[in-house]
Amino acid sequence: MCKGTIYFLIFPIMNEICRFMKDVEVGLLLTFALEIINIKKMMINKDLYQFTQSLDFMKFTLHQYLLDCSEPMLIATGTTQQAETIIPEIKNILGDRLLSSILVSHMESDECGGIFRIHELWPEAVVVCSEMTGRELYGFGYTGKIKTVKGGEILKGTDYELEAIDYPSEVHLQNGCLFFERKRGILYSADLMLSFGMAAGKVIEKNWEQAVGEIGIERIPNEVFLHEMKKRLLAIHPRFVAVGHGYCLKV
Ligand SMILES: [Fe+2]
Ligand SMILES: [Fe+2]
C-alpha cells in the first residue's frame, strides 16, 4: 500500500485526534500518519525506560518514559497511536504491578494524547500535572484521578521524591510542569531541551550551566519567562535529563 493511500485512510482519524487535542502539533500528527510508528525501547538510565518513535526523514524523535520505581510512573503518554504501541512494552516491564501515576507536563498530543487509553488499562493511576492542565483534562472529559502540583511542591514515595518545576508551556505561556526526581537526579524536560537527530537511546554529556544557557527564546518566547525558567533550572542539579525529543543529557 502506498503512502498516499495510507494517508487518506488515516487522515480522518488523525483529524479527529487533532480536533480533540486542540489542533496542536497537527503537522506532527499528520506526519505520523505517513510514517507509521516504529518504536524502540531501552533502559536509558537507572530505573528509567525510554520509548521512542522516530520520524527518520526529518530526524526527529518523540520519547515517553517509564520510571520503574516502587510506584511506577509513566512520563508522557504520547498520542493515542503512540500509546497503543508502548502499552505492550509497559505491561512487559510492569508484570503484575500496576502503573501508579502518569506525569503530564502540559496539554499537548505527545504529552497526554493517549491518556484515555492508559486510563482504560490502569484506571487507578493518578495523573500528576499543573492545576491548569488538570482543568484542561477535566474539560476534555477526563474522569480519572488527578493530583495537581505547584512549582516547588514535592511528592514523596517509598523510593522517590518528585519535585514539580513551573514551566510556561501551557496556552499563552502559562503553567505547565517539568518533573525532577531528586533521588535519582532525573529531570524530565518535555520540549524545553528539544534537539533534532536520530536520538533514540542516545545520551550526550553536557555541563548543566551550558545546557540551560543553550535554551533559546524559541522554546519560551518571552524574555522574562525564559530568564525565570533558567533561574529555576539552575537551582536544581540533575544528573540526567530525559528530554521529550532528541538527545538525553548526562550532566
Ligand atoms: Fe509540547
Ligand atoms: Fe513535545
Strand content: 25-35%
Please trace the helix and strand order, writing H or E for each element: HHEEEEHEHHEHEEEEEEHHEE
And the CATH topology of the largest domain?
Answer: Metallo-beta-lactamase, Chain A
Regions with little confidence, pLDDT below 50 for 5+ residues? 1-9, 18-24
Give a description of the structure.
There is one protein chain. Helix 6 links the parallel strand 6 and strand 7 (146-149). The protein has helices at 3-20, 26-35, 80-94, 109-112, 115-121, 131-139, 208-213, 223-234; strands spanning 39-45, 48-55, 60-67, 73-75, 101-103, 126-130, 146-149, 154-156, 161-170, 174-181, 186-190, 203-205, 240-243, 248-250. The chain has 251 residues and is of the alpha/beta class. Helix 1 runs antiparallel to helix 2 and helix 3 (80-94) runs parallel beside helix 5. The chain is globular and about 45 Å long. Residues 1-9 and 18-24 have low confidence and may be disordered. It has 2 domains: 1-36, no CATH class; 37-250, Metallo-beta-lactamase, Chain A, CATH 3.60.15.10. A 7-stranded mixed beta sheet has the order 1-2-3-4-5-6-7. Strands 8-9-10-11-13-14-12 form a 7-stranded mixed beta sheet, sandwiched between helices. 32% of the residues lie in helices and 29% in strands. The structure holds fe (ii) ion (2 copies).
